[in-house]
Specification:
CATH class of the largest domain in chain A: Alpha Beta
CATH architecture of the largest domain in chain A: 3-Layer(aba) Sandwich
Helix content of chain A: 25-40%
Oligomer: homodimer
Mean pLDDT of chain A: 96
Strand order of the largest sheet of chain A: 9-14-13-15-16-18-17
Distance between the termini of chain A: 57 Å
Number of helices of chain A: 20
Largest interface: A-B, 105 and 105 residues
CATH superfamily of the largest domain in chain A: Thiamin diphosphate (ThDP)-binding fold, Pyr/PP domains
Strand content of chain A: 15-25%
Low-confidence stretches of chain A: none
Number of strands of chain A: 18
Largest sheet of chain A: 7 strands, mixed
Chain lengths: 515, 515
């Protein structure tokens, strides 16, 4: 076998059987090797930002890494923004970046660039498979790195001659996924002591926003009177009926300060202490009250679920205590004008059980969260790193991971235009994704921010940079161009009809909600 | 004024009056400052790869830098692939990358990343405007860096607090554009000596592919019997009737070896010694015959035009000697089947004088060059760095630079899908661009490369990564979704009609040529 075959074998043996790809010439031997491995599912993205975003969505739902295949430095560069989001989401991922043959690098051929410098900011681990004999071990190391809790971005550079050269080296095996290290007794005792007092808030991030850990956090809160909150941006939250409801730290600085006012002790469970998304003149950068004590119960890579269980035990919280799970209560479908709130109500009214909601609605989606606290149980995935263009590929990758579940993408128009090519992959793979475009024809969030900086009424240059209305994007045509059926709606009643139809069917559909 | 105002003033004083932009919150003070400066033309790209690609196309035609405005590390990352192409094209450019306020960086807010590591591989110069008082001088330095011959990528990081803070520091002025340094006498004498012998080839790159320099190269070749050739990838060539025709080093290794066979001395004039675009098992990486001597007459940053003039004088070449300019001869418009060659013939038959041809046709466009040697005079711009997705924004930026000229984009379908959003900017700015999509519904070049690696007939996984036919892209709908009228043609006669109509009108148009 050659190095490329060794890579395929090692990936498959390590449980990686999906490869999101946009290959080029230097990756052709790997493509040929993938072609000899029908167990590997190869999913093409028309642009590398789609490729890495799909791998992020896949990892969030499958809870294991996919591979990506990227073409040299520029291909990696195109994928970086969604790698940034994936890194913030702590998604495991193994990127295979093809490189020129080792001896060809010295020629500075047109596609040559400094891959290490490009990869480093968005990768936790970088490895170079410089010879055919080292490919398998490097790949096993990459898998191990990706699986390191809470999830890491591993980037493996595969020079073309390492891919095409023959190897008789034994295949290496990635070690089994490592368990997250347990939290020490001192941290648990300190958190327990804080929770015996007043004004404690458990700030949750990562895996404790799901399953028994979330229930346990709910019981601790119920028993102690502590508040529960999630970070502002979260990779995945289980919510809706039957789940313990958690609010999130608001995006707007003033709202966040208000939400955290009165907190005496902030107890971090897989979360970071909250900071402002952006700096503003005269506003604070950290959001907890200055006098609040900040305790870490569990770092993001530690066993937060185990720590919560130990904490509940330490506090003597009864296992049968009601954690305060949400009941099921849907709103009536909205009628009348089409507003962001009407979209939230329509989704809350119509979403099926166990839908996967991918939210890149930016300013338009702020009503969604509260209207769906008692919706049917669902997973809620967000843009985590602020690099827009996350949503369409995130939904695509989530749908690959969850073939039996309906994926609903709540999508700001400006952000969707970064990676609208993902619609084509949805069509090609017949994925069950309903995308709702919040078509307000502007970077709406930036109008608010421009006002925040005291710039007065926007003039021509500002409008030329913030408006998307001249010409308006024809979302129905765009979606159809990518092979996805689409509907345009201008009032809430039409939205409800279109959404009901899309959710009743299978396969991709796009609804342009003209706001 | 604040730091953002100082930046605007310094850019304008330095002759930069076009800003290609996709701003975010951290850039709002700069947006507000641009809004106070109607002399600055702000052009929105829906994605940063469009933004940097437009600035590249603009610089190639305007021969001066534009500014770009990019949002933090991820916004820069999205623009890197086309910065890579621009760097290879030696296009001058000043990128303004907004950053968090200096004191906010320590908080590792969601959009924080290592901007320096991201910027370094594609930037010749990086500067940090860390305080309001230092913004103007840093901007002046950036302009000077960008204008350094032959053209450089300058990246200026602008923290939000440097933008919003007040400054009374005097405005700095960029020095006037520096002349390219003259070539030493030894290099001219050595080249002259080589040209007095046999088997010399002048390999041209950069500005000597235009104007009097190209004429001069033609006279030297005519007087000495030397051959003329351009690099494989070139930022801009003046060609067609009235210009000295130059062939290019072929892309395919075997063709390049054949084209360069028999060369005794390769004389580089603003060019690099030719290397293979990719490495292949058993094929050489350098393309000149191993026994050929390689002389450098002028480095890319040196005064190649002056060097050629001095060389002509040294050789006693008569100023009135016929440099071998091409005559005007158009082919008949093609009829019958629609092939890549038919597209080339149709463009050659119909293109107006002084068109700007932007070529990212990849494998489909290889017939174009020879069929247009005697077409009306035109500029020919290519993808230079191999990072696909260059073409649509390149054409857009070129059209901004040349409002009176018809821009014709020859565009491979797979590559166009990287940055199709540029069509929207063409519609918004009413740019006179006719785009012809070579719609072969596959990454055709990769089929050839897969065959080259001996992979046999492609199977399911290879086809899933190389084909774009399931579903086919609906280019007419896609273009219309972006506000650009479009036509689909399936035979040469229909192409000729559609192209004639598009060229007769003004404004953007897209033709899907189904191959």
């Amino acid at each position: 076998m050659n190095g490329a075959d060794a890579l395929c074998e090692t990936l498959l043996a390590g449980g990686i059987d999906v490869c999101f790809a946009n290959p080029g010439t230097s990756e052709m031997h790997f493509v040929a090797a993938l072609d000899r491995q029908p167990r590997m599912r190869c999913v093409l993205g028309l642009f590398e930002g789609v490729v890495t975003g799909m791998a992020d969505g896949y990892a969030r739902m499958a809870e294991r890494p996919a591979a990506t295949l990227l073409h040299l430095g520029p291909g990696l560069a195109n994928g970086l923004a969604n790698l940034h989001n994936a890194r913030r989401a702590r998604s495991p991922m193994v990127n295979v970046v093809g490189d020129h043959a080792t001896y060809h690098r010295a020629h500075d051929a047109p596609l040559h660039s400094d891959i290490e410098s490009l990869a480093r900011p968005m990768s936790h681990w970088i490895g170079w498979a410089e010879t055919p004999d080292s490919v398998s071990q490097t790949a096993a190391d990459a898998i191990a790195a990706a699986r390191t809790p809470p999830g890491r971005i591993a980037t493996l550079v595969l020079p073309a001659d390492a891919a095409w050269g023959e190897t008789a080296a034994p295949l290496a095996a990635a070690p089994p996924p490592a368990a997250a290290p347990a939290v020490g007794r001192e941290a648990i005792a300190a958190a327990a002591q804080a929770l015996r007092g007043k004004g404690a808030l458990l700030l949750l991030g990562g895996a404790v926003l799901r399953g028994p850990a979330l229930d346990c956090a709910g019981r601790i809160a119920a028993a102690t009177g502590a508040r529960l909150m999630a970070q502002q941006s979260n990779a995945r939250i289980e919510r809706g009926a039957g789940r313990v409801p958690v609010s999130r730290v608001p995006y707007v600085v003033e709202h966040a300060l208000a939400a955290l006012a009165g907190v005496g002790t902030l107890i971090l469970v897989g979360a970071k202490a909250p900071v402002a998304f952006f700096a503003y003149p005269g506003k604070p950068g950290t959001l907890a009250p200055p006098e609040a004590r900040i305790l870490t119960l569990a770092e993001p890579g530690e066993d937060g679920a185990g720590a919560l269980a130990a904490l509940a035990e330490e506090l003597g919280v009864a296992a049968g205590l009601d954690p305060g799970r949400a009941g099921l209560a849907r709103p009536a479908p909205p009628t009348g004008a089409l507003t962001p709130e009407a979209v939230a109500l329509a989704v809350a009214a119509l979403m099926p059980e166990h839908a996967v909601i991918c939210d890149e609605s930016v300013s338009s989606g702020r009503d969604f969260f509260r209207h769906t606290a008692t919706a049917p149980p669902h997973d809620f995935l967000q843009i985590t790193g602020g690099a827009i263009g996350c949503g369409p590929p995130l939904a695509t990758g989530a749908a690959i991971a969850c073939p039996g579940r309906k994926v609903i993408a709540l999508q700001a128009d400006g952000s969707a235009l970064y990676t609208a090519q993902a619609l084509w992959t949805q069509a090609r793979e017949s994925l069950d994704v309903t995308t709702i475009i919040f078509s307000n024809r502007r970077y709406a969030i930036l109008y608010g921010e421009l006002k925040n900086v005291g710039a007065g009424d926007p003039g021509r240059n500002a409008r030329r940079m913030l408006d998307l209305d001249d010409p308006p994007i024809g979302w129905v045509r765009l979606a159809e161009g990518f092979g996805v059926p689409a509907t345009r709606v201008e009032d809430a009643d039409a939205l409800v009809r279109a959404l009901a139809a899309a959710l009743a069917g299978r396969g991709p559909h796009l609804i342009e909600a003209v706001l």
